[in-house]
Amino acid sequence: MSASFELTSRPIRRAGVAWRVVDGEAVMVLPATGKVHTLNQVGTRFWQLADGQRTFGEVIDLLAEEFDAPRERIEQDCREFARELASRELISVTAA
Amino acid sequence: MGDGAHGHARDRVLNVPMLGGETRAARADLVNRLSVGPDFPARGDLGLEIADLHVQVASCDAGWTRRLARSFGAFRGAESRQSDTVARLCLAAPSRLWRDESPEPRVVRSAPDAIGVEHRDMVAMLALDGSRMDVLQPPRLLSTENALRVLFGLLLVRRGGLLLHAAGVVRRGAATVLFGRSGSGKSTSAQLARGRPILGDDLVALRRVGSDWLAYSTPFGGASARRWRRPRAVPVSRLYRLRHGPELEARDLPAARAIAELVQCAVLPAAAASDQALAFERCVEIQAAVPVRELFFPLDPRLWRWLDEREL
Asked: Where are the alpha helices (DSSP H) in chain B?
């Protein structure tokens, strides 16, 4: 699936992914494949915010504020990160 | 389903043809038709107990039942014990059907109430509720072991436990469990634990009892794993992810990574997605209850003395 991360699109965690956040880091497994993944703190917050209720732009804004980092850098990191999660079938994107 | 068109003999017990078997498709088809009827002619049975789970193993061949009793004798359960599930074994002549090179069992078919499993040396139908497993296998102990490993892996996650690729050694009344993938040093670490009770060097069962996690020996890992009765159930005090390294070193493991490592070493062949999710939950629970660290091990014979001196 080729995901388009327009700022008005809404990232959403895939149903069926088993996950936990422990000590600020997420660990997850896709039961259908058995593959396990861990996320760093920024990735974990992105994952938690990807509930389908917020737009991609809103997620970036929140992360820039939480981590006190330039928005442009956060946006670049989020785009790369979102592409990686989508390639692993962990998130999908709903259109604006 | 007739046998005349293909000239194959028909197994007298199972409603499946005995295939000359050249392809995986043929094996998958065999799984589809594997069904042991209600009049399964059991020629003896025995109860096995692993991690306080009791399985009644019935065989259609009396000689095979006796052989299983001799081989798995250290894990015989009490005859009066109610079984958690029943495994029914039927033997098939060795043939090309059994030369699949797949290293791990595969789910080859799912039905509303059962899943089909194939491995290099057995095919099986496993009821989704875990109440029964019907197996077709050649007369090899490894085949029975592989079938039981599938079954117990599933039963354990559903009963608050997990089967783990691990060695287990008892120290000061508690189990130190060293887990890791094949080649990480599990067997060597167990061999070096001279004088200490050994739970196992390949597969260890963990199970939650109340708020504690207990480690159990298993009969999986060949004849040496079944040779004698191991310590029955020992509280787990330490979990180490074993890795090769230039020198002995123990490092803290972040919680998320510890869970990921446990998931990757969990033994749950051929499970439905819901059971994979359960296995994940067990790993989360284990990590929350028992310290998990990374242990770098250069196959050094001083391993256990080193751990004891540092109270690790």
From this structure: 24-33, 62-71, 141-158, 186-191, 223-226, 255-265, 273-289, 303-309
Pair of tokens at residue B228: 């004698």
Question: Are B259 and A20 an interchain contact pair (Cβ–Cβ within 8 Å)?
Answer: yes
| Cβ contacts of B276 on chain A, cutoff 8 Å | 18, 29, 31-32, 34
Separation in Å, CA of A14 to nearest CA in chain B: 14
Give the Cα-Cα-Cα angle B206, B207, B209 (nearest 5 degrees).
145
**Reduced 3-state DSSP string for B182-197:** CCCCHHHHHHCCCCCC
pTM of the model as a whole: 0.87
Across the interface, do B256 and A26 touch by the CB < 8 Å criterion? yes
pLDDT tens-place string over residues B92-141: 776 655 665 666 777 777 777 888 888 777 888 888 888 889 888 888 89
Give, in order, the Cα–Cα distances in Å from B235 to each of A77, B18, B216, B281: 44, 47, 9, 20
